[in-house]
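Notes from hallway chat w/ T.B., transcribed later so I don't forget. T.B. wanted the structure written out for a chain they're using in a teaching module, and asked if we could keep both sequence and structure tokens in one place. Agreed to drop them here.
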Amino acid sequence: MNISKLPVIDDLRAFEAVARLGSVRAAADEMSLTHGAVSRRVSKLAHYIGIALLVPDGRGIKLTAEGEKLGIAAGRAFEMLAQTLAEIRAQPTQKAVLLSCERSVAMLWLIPHLSEFQDTNPSIPIHLSVGGGPLDFEREGIALAIRRIDFPLDPKWTVETLFEELMGPVMQPAICNRFLEGDYIALGSKTRPNGWRDWCAQHPSVPPPNEIRLMDHHYLMVVAATNGLGVAMCPKVLALGDIDCGRLTAPMGFTSDGSVYGLVYPTALGLVDGSEIANSWLLRIGTELFEDR
């Protein structure tokens, strides 16, 4: 069927109302239009198909044989459309998956990947709750959480390992030699104030920094490093995007700090529908994160 050859839908609606109600005025009242507007639409439809649809009948009008036929067909078509729309609206919509994620991981890793999930799962909306700390799944409506597992876990939670936490110094390529010579400022996060001390203890051959500056969040630390303000002690997951595009380099690589990131959800509620699909997707991209890196 070539729908481009069909008349304008508004003209068909006006004619269907006239045919069903038997009056241009009644159709105008139903459609909240003027008498003249409905008449023009019906005349436009008749002109388009080249057939008379209405003829005068005393002070009123009546349908021609062709008009009766078209009126019945248009009525059935609009009834079918109305029924289909009602069925679609009655279907339960996919509940949004509220995903809680630590701020820096969300900004530097999760959000850049979310378009992939949306493209493959357009009917499953993901809403982000950005922040760390305690989890109250029921009160906050959280379906799934991403957390670095460095705190006591509730026995009522299920935790699936997402990826290992690997740490290392990252910097602009231009200051790599200064780092190796010990002429650099170290950037750290207040959320892990001992990050540089612990790393230097594991790498005694690397010259210590001239100074350590702590920032409120890892995200700010990474931005500072990409702008040449110093060398950041950075989780690998937060640095990969900038390393891939050449803004940062990691000459010493990354080493495990003994912790992992996990996907956390209440065991009793489990994972259903969209949250189960989101969980599987996150596990996949978490596994792929460090492959061939």
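Follow-up for T.B.: The radius of gyration is 33 Å. Might be a good example for the class.
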